[in-house]
Amino acid sequence: MNSTLGLWRWLFQRITAILLVVLLAIHIITLHFSHQEFNFKSVVERIQSNYSWVIFYGLFLVVGLWHGLNGVYQVIEDYKPSKGFKNFLIFILWLGGIVLFVWGLRVLLSWWKFTV
After folding, report:
1. What structural domains and CATH numbers belong to the chain?
2. Overall pTM > 0.70
3. Among the listed residues 6, 4, 47, 5, the one whose alpha carbon sits nearest the alpha carbon of residue 27
4. Cys-Cys crosslink for 67: which of 16, 21, 47, 91, Cβ 3.0 to 4.6 Å?
5. How far, in Å, CA of 44 to CA of 68, rounded?
6. Amino acid 116: pLDDT
7. Which residues contact 47 (CB under 8 A, 6 or more apart)?
8. Helix pair angle (40-49, 51-79), 10° resolution
9. Whole-angstrom Cα distance, residue 66 to residue 73?
10. In whole angstroms, how far apart are CA 56 and each of 12, 14, 104?
11. What does the DSSP assignment read for 10-41?
Protein backbone atom coordinates (compact mmCIF):
# COMPACT_ATOMS: atom_id res chain seq x y z
CA MET A 1 0.00 0.00 0.00
CA ASN A 2 2.82 2.40 0.79
CA SER A 3 4.26 2.01 -2.72
CA THR A 4 0.81 2.77 -4.20
CA LEU A 5 0.60 5.93 -2.10
CA GLY A 6 4.09 6.87 -3.25
CA LEU A 7 3.05 6.36 -6.87
CA TRP A 8 0.08 8.70 -6.42
CA ARG A 9 2.27 11.35 -4.73
CA TRP A 10 4.74 11.10 -7.60
CA LEU A 11 1.97 11.34 -10.20
CA PHE A 12 0.26 14.31 -8.53
CA GLN A 13 3.63 16.06 -8.25
CA ARG A 14 3.99 15.85 -12.04
CA ILE A 15 0.36 16.84 -12.70
CA THR A 16 0.58 19.85 -10.38
CA ALA A 17 3.85 20.88 -12.04
CA ILE A 18 2.13 20.96 -15.43
CA LEU A 19 -0.87 22.80 -13.96
CA LEU A 20 1.42 25.35 -12.33
CA VAL A 21 3.13 26.08 -15.65
CA VAL A 22 -0.25 26.56 -17.36
CA LEU A 23 -1.72 28.67 -14.54
CA LEU A 24 1.41 30.78 -14.29
CA ALA A 25 1.41 31.37 -18.05
CA ILE A 26 -2.22 32.53 -17.92
CA HIS A 27 -1.43 34.78 -14.96
CA ILE A 28 1.61 36.36 -16.63
CA ILE A 29 -0.10 36.85 -19.98
CA THR A 30 -3.18 38.35 -18.36
CA LEU A 31 -1.36 40.71 -16.03
CA HIS A 32 1.81 41.63 -17.86
CA PHE A 33 1.12 41.30 -21.58
CA SER A 34 -2.50 42.40 -21.90
CA HIS A 35 -1.57 46.04 -22.60
CA GLN A 36 -4.06 47.18 -20.00
CA GLU A 37 -3.18 49.52 -17.22
CA PHE A 38 -1.68 47.50 -14.38
CA ASN A 39 -2.47 48.95 -10.98
CA PHE A 40 -4.42 48.09 -7.85
CA LYS A 41 -7.72 49.36 -9.23
CA SER A 42 -7.47 47.31 -12.44
CA VAL A 43 -6.66 44.13 -10.48
CA VAL A 44 -9.65 44.65 -8.19
CA GLU A 45 -11.92 45.33 -11.19
CA ARG A 46 -10.75 42.17 -12.93
CA ILE A 47 -11.25 39.95 -9.89
CA GLN A 48 -14.63 41.51 -9.07
CA SER A 49 -15.83 41.28 -12.68
CA ASN A 50 -16.74 37.59 -12.43
CA TYR A 51 -16.20 34.50 -10.32
CA SER A 52 -13.92 32.81 -12.82
CA TRP A 53 -10.88 34.77 -11.62
CA VAL A 54 -11.57 33.86 -8.01
CA ILE A 55 -11.86 30.20 -9.03
CA PHE A 56 -8.68 30.54 -11.11
CA TYR A 57 -6.64 31.98 -8.24
CA GLY A 58 -8.19 29.53 -5.77
CA LEU A 59 -7.05 26.69 -8.02
CA PHE A 60 -3.63 28.34 -8.32
CA LEU A 61 -3.44 28.46 -4.51
CA VAL A 62 -4.43 24.80 -4.02
CA VAL A 63 -2.16 23.49 -6.79
CA GLY A 64 0.80 25.56 -5.61
CA LEU A 65 0.38 24.48 -1.99
CA TRP A 66 0.01 20.81 -2.91
CA HIS A 67 3.07 20.90 -5.17
CA GLY A 68 5.23 22.73 -2.63
CA LEU A 69 4.21 20.76 0.45
CA ASN A 70 4.41 17.44 -1.38
CA GLY A 71 7.91 18.40 -2.49
CA VAL A 72 8.94 19.17 1.08
CA TYR A 73 7.42 15.86 2.18
CA GLN A 74 9.52 14.03 -0.41
CA VAL A 75 12.66 15.75 0.91
CA ILE A 76 11.73 14.60 4.42
CA GLU A 77 11.26 11.05 3.08
CA ASP A 78 14.70 11.16 1.43
CA TYR A 79 16.41 11.89 4.76
CA LYS A 80 14.61 8.97 6.47
CA PRO A 81 14.17 10.56 9.91
CA SER A 82 13.05 8.57 12.93
CA LYS A 83 9.33 7.79 13.07
CA GLY A 84 8.62 10.28 15.87
CA PHE A 85 10.51 13.11 14.20
CA LYS A 86 8.91 12.29 10.84
CA ASN A 87 5.44 12.44 12.41
CA PHE A 88 6.32 15.79 13.98
CA LEU A 89 7.49 17.16 10.62
CA ILE A 90 4.36 15.88 8.87
CA PHE A 91 2.24 17.58 11.55
CA ILE A 92 4.14 20.84 10.92
CA LEU A 93 3.57 20.44 7.16
CA TRP A 94 -0.17 19.90 7.64
CA LEU A 95 -0.41 22.81 10.06
CA GLY A 96 1.58 25.07 7.74
CA GLY A 97 -0.49 23.98 4.74
CA ILE A 98 -3.76 24.70 6.51
CA VAL A 99 -2.54 28.09 7.74
CA LEU A 100 -1.27 29.07 4.28
CA PHE A 101 -4.48 27.88 2.60
CA VAL A 102 -6.72 29.82 5.00
CA TRP A 103 -4.51 32.89 4.71
CA GLY A 104 -4.46 32.73 0.91
CA LEU A 105 -8.19 32.12 0.68
CA ARG A 106 -8.86 34.99 3.08
CA VAL A 107 -6.76 37.35 0.98
CA LEU A 108 -8.43 36.16 -2.22
CA LEU A 109 -11.94 36.58 -0.83
CA SER A 110 -11.10 39.96 0.72
CA TRP A 111 -10.84 41.48 -2.78
CA TRP A 112 -14.64 41.63 -2.87
CA LYS A 113 -14.64 44.05 0.07
CA PHE A 114 -12.81 46.71 -1.92
CA THR A 115 -14.89 49.24 -3.78
CA VAL A 116 -13.59 50.56 -7.05
Report:
1. 2-31+51-113 (1.20.1300.10)
2. yes
3. 47
4. 16
5. 27
6. 46
7. 53, 54, 57, 111, 112
8. 100
9. 10
10. 19, 19, 13
11. HHHHHHHHHHHHHHHHHHHHHHHSS-S--SHH
d(CA 13, CA 110): 29
User: Contact, 105 vs 57, CB < 8 A?
Assistant: no
**Contacts (Cβ under 8 Å, ≥6 apart) of 32:** 38
Q: What angle do CA 32, 36, 113 make, to 5 degrees?
A: 90
Q: What angle do CA 49, 54, 58 make, to 5 degrees?
A: 170
Please write the tens of the pLDDT for every residue from 50-78: 788 889 999 999 999 999 999 999 999 99
Confidence of residue 37 (pLDDT cuts 50, 70, 90): confident
Residues in the chain: 116
Task: State the CB neighbour count (10 A cutoff) for residue 62.
Answer: 15
Question: What is the rounded end-to-end Cα distance, in angstroms, of the chain?
Answer: 53
